[in-house]
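Review this today:
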Amino acid sequence: MSKRRVLGSSLSSLMRRPVLAAESVRALMSVRRRARPWPSSDYLGWRLHTAYGEGGDSALDAQDFLHYLEWRRRMRIMGRWDLWT
């Protein structure tokens, strides 16, 4: 699946789940606030390979992004914010 398609699918899913849309803005702001450099494309490719095996780019989907946002929201609600920000 192309990155553009994953992004479009993620955005349409977020429109149906406003709570996660708000969490996605929080996630974006936390990345921006840290001002850390983005990982290299080689590293991201390796991470996709270790997570999905061969053809990792095609396995990436919007559901993974939504699961991450749900996990992030649960951790924030439970007061575990300091573990990953």
